Amino acid sequence: MNPDLIFILFLIALTGICDTINQLFLKSSIDSLKIPHTANIFKILQFIIKLIKIPQIWIGFLFTVVSLCIWLFVLSKSDLNFAFSADSMHYIFIALGSGIILKEKVGLMRWAGTICIIMGIILVSLA
Amino acid sequence: MFKKNLTLKILLFLVFSDFLETFTQFCFKKSSLSQSGFYIRELADVATFLKGVSASPFLWIGLLSVLLTFIIWSAILSKIDLSVAVPIASFSYILVPLVSIIFLHEKINALKWVGISFILAGVVFVSLSSKERKAVP
Lengths: 127, 137
Hints:
heterodimer, A: 127 residues, mainly alpha, 6 helices, 81% helix, B: 137 residues, disordered N terminus
């Protein structure tokens, strides 16, 4: 592998980690709120407004901005096909983060599904 | 009965957020294409790069789409586990090839079909794991 490719892969992994951190902040913030059991659009918007008053959301948002900048740079360097297939590694970060930090029960079935999806994405993107 | 409807609704929401996600990626690629010859060597180059990208209207349409996705995504996450929502959202990898086949009459090779079935199988596995969890509280 040439050093350019390794650098791009490293950057893609970094965007995956940044996105995962953002998702973890978002999910934990949502869980800390009382969730409206309704399809009423105004209730949902009220919920969103309450949500964006939580500072963790904005820390997560910062990570997204960093991730977006890196991602735009990656896209200017490499194919969308390659970038997307390499980006599928963020499913691993999500599964690990959800299990370790959010204490979600990521069992064998969920891991099997996640691995299946990653293999599928690599095939679809590169084939 | 109500619960069953809710699950279908969440799935529809996920598919819709996938469409938005795909649209966002399309916009971002369009905006960054204008900067393909660009090399970042120092910090000042980053600013120049961002300035060039933000001149493209596609970046702003993409950002608007991100905002809408955020609202829908938050609604989804309030209902289901993160480790379920994210893998199921991989549906967009199936949507794009299917749309290409149906509307653009593109040819899809066998390996891509294998990939699509892998993703489908994965989504089914993850969905089943979610039901299992609810059955045993």
